[in-house]
Design goal:
Distance between the termini: 100 Å
Oligomer: single chain
Strand content: under 5%
Order of helices and strands: HHEEHHHHHHHHHHHHHHHHHHHHHH
Helix content: over 70%
């Protein structure tokens, strides 16, 4: 098994090397095949590892590749750690990643950077695999930084557009803020326990008996700051909507299978830590809640098809962090999985629409596409049902589990979250109705609008099937069926469960309350869908193209002015301070000092060079004068 585990990240890395070195030399067909086969092979090997793991004793498998760094008190290996959580993430990353690679072959077929694009996709997959396979916090941090680099490369892939470059730089810089928090958290853990190996950390954290140990509180906050950056939580979320500058398959990969799930993964991986610091969990709960609400409200007034989906991702990530905040780690991971299915489907569906409409992204210029793009419409409709939480689609089960745990833990948070679920159903069906229903409002002729080729349609169909049945891995207890995901993930979460039970931190929900929560969830979603139907089907409303009116509409259309606030509070003051230092230090001190020495040296040399005439008589005269001066000086000193 150890060799197979090492092979999983090696395969996409090989694809990256081959496509990278062969860019401009390999045909598009070969480049696409290399990228897709590398991701498929990684998925197949992950499946083989899963079967071998299940056939074993269920204990984590640690693969030590080599000694990375060692001192008297610290030893860190370059190692992989495979347990139930790792295997689930491997299946999601490689499985969904492979489908996105296949879709990309059709979507990017005319792009001149085709081979380079697939090289970057494979590198992105490799980095995410290192992140989830890492046997210690530093290994995870390597993958963490890798996905940050790849997001920069792919968001700014069309780098001739300065706006796209700005979006890539924004993502890179904002993630560096979170990454600093993660790094400080690693230092705190090393100081507290002397190790950052996951197997050793789990044992050490399982021995902790006190609540809210100061070192652990700060470590937990720092790790969550890292998660804020990667998983786009307030206040570090504004980079994610701007990441739509990249090609649509990149958006699907970032939002569904790789980068934004890494923050959720980190907190679940460190569940033994967060179980001991309920105060930090409460903080995570309310940050997630605020993010979910802000993202949903902004999503109601966006008119770019990809921006609507981007803000829905921000909101759904907020749901996941709410689950983490109430200690529902299984529910959070469950929603990561179902979200990977329906969000990848939504983004690839949006890509199919954009492809069919020759790069049109404004939903005000769409409409009536369900007859012209039937496969895209049906699959997109299924994804909408899933994200809106309509049973039996996958999003219903994962969202309901989060709502049930929140209901048992914090009634106020539950009410807010249920309202956000209704808003989600509203703006997602607003998107569906404006894109696919009523009459076409664009300028293209019907015969120029075309359905996507098979390479793009097949991934849509597979993801639609997964979005339909994916929720059955986590059926509610009231159905009297096993919770397959919870049962499989149980050993990873046992330290958190044991600690919570011993400190009475768990919250139970009765069957009657669970039925109530499910009923309210469905009703709220149907109300949101009904409101969208009333406005955009019955009344056939189309968002106005002029500036928004009304306070709330202006607020949401302008994304609550977060970018403007950051610009006024952070960017402009830093630029002003930089300008002052440029004058005081760079110009007046450094330049003046350096140039002053040069000017002085030049002046002295200019003065001295006039004494160099090249005439022997002149030199003899100077020598005589010098000797005479020394003689006079000596005589004066003697007498």
């Amino acid at each position: 098994m150890e060799k197979l585990i090492a092979l999983i990240p090696a395969l996409p890395f090989a694809g990256f090397v081959l496509n990278g070195l062969g860019f401009g030399k390999l045909s598009k067909g070969i480049a696409g095949a290399i990228g897709a086969i590398a991701s498929l092979a990684a998925f197949i090997v992950s499946v083989l590892v899963l079967f071998q793991f299940k056939a074993g004793d269920g204990q984590p498998v640690v693969v030590n590749l080599w000694k990375w760094m060692s001192s008297n008190s610290l030893s860190i290996d370059f190692s992989f750690h495979v347990d139930q959580l790792t295997l689930i993430m491997l299946m999601v990353v490689t499985g969904v990643g492979f489908l996105i690679h296949i879709f990309s072959m059709g979507y990017m077929h005319e792009d001149e950077g085709f081979g380079k694009f697939f090289a970057f996709l494979n590198l992105f997959l490799f980095s995410m695999l290192i992140l989830v396979l890492g046997g210690n916090l530093l290994m995870t941090f390597i993958g963490w930084e890798g996905v940050g680099l790849c997001s920069f490369l792919l968001i700014g892939f069309w780098n001739k557009n300065e706006a796209f470059n700005a979006a890539a730089k924004k993502a890179f810089v904002m993630n560096r803020i979170g990454d600093l928090g993660f790094l400080i958290g690693i230092f705190l853990i090393l100081y507290r326990f002397g190790t950052c190996q996951y197997a050793e950390l789990t044992a050490a954290l399982s021995a902790v008996q006190t609540l809210n140990d100061p070192y652990l509180v700060w470590a937990g906050i720092c790790f969550f700051i890292g998660a804020m950056g990667k998983s786009a939580q307030l206040p570090l979320f504004t980079w994610l909507p701007d990441a739509m500058a990249g090609p649509t398959p990149v958006s699907a990969l970032i939002h569904a299978a790789t980068m934004v799930t890494s923050g959720i993964y980190l907190v679940i991986r460190m569940n033994a830590l967060y179980a001991t610091i309920p105060d930090v969990q409460e903080f995570i709960l309310w940050i997630g809640m605020a993010t979910a609400l802000i993202g949903a409200l902004i999503g109601t007034s966006q008119n770019d098809i990809k921006k609507v989906l981007a803000y829905s991702t921000v909101s759904q990530l907020g749901f996941m962090f709410v689950a983490l905040g109430v200690g529902a780690y299984t529910a959070a991971l469950f929603h990561v999985i179902t979200h990977a299915f329906f969000k990848a489907l939504l983004f690839l569906g949006a890509g199919s629409v954009i492809h069919g409409l020759h790069e049109e992204q404004d939903i005000r210029n769409m409409g009536g596409l369900k007859k012209l793009l039937p496969i895209t419409y049906i699959t997109f409709f299924i994804a909408n049902l899933a994200i809106a939480g309509i049973p039996p689609f996958s999003g219903f089960f994962s969202k309901d589990e989060i709502l049930a745990h929140t209901f048992a833990s914090n009634k106020v948070a539950y009410v807010i979250l249920a309202i956000i679920a209704g808003i989600t159903a509203f703006y997602m069906f607003r998107l569906l109705f404006l894109v696919f229903f009523n009459e076409y409002r664009g300028k293209l002729k019907a015969e120029k609008i075309h359905e996507s080729p098979a390479s793009m349609a097949i991934p849509l169909i597979i993801l639609a099937i997964l979005s339909t049945i994916g929720g059955f891995i986590g059926l509610p207890e009231v159905f009297h069926f096993p919770h397959l995901l919870g049962d499989f993930l149980g050993p990873v979460l046992q330290p958190a469960v044991n600690f919570s039970n011993s400190h009475s931190l768990t919250h139970a929900i009765s069957h009657s309350d669970e039925w109530l929560v499910m009923g309210i969830s469905v009703v709220v979603s149907l109300v949101g869908i009904g409101l969208a139907y009333s406005l955009y089907i019955s009344k056939n409303l189309v968002p106005a193209s002029e500036e928004p009116t009304g306070f709330l509409h202006k607020l949401t259309s302008n994304k609550f002015y977060f970018d403007e606030i950051y610009d006024a509070v952070i960017v402009k003051p830093i630029n002003l301070i930089s300008g002052i230092f440029a004058i005081l230090i760079d110009i007046l001190f450094i330049n003046l000092f350096v140039e002053g020495i040069g000017i002085l040296t030049k002046g002295i040399s200019t003065a001295l060079k006039s004494t160099q005439t090249g005439r022997a008589t002149g030199y003899a005269f100077l020598m005589f004068c010098s000797i005479l001066a020394f003689a006079v000086f000596y005589l004066i000193k003697v007498f």
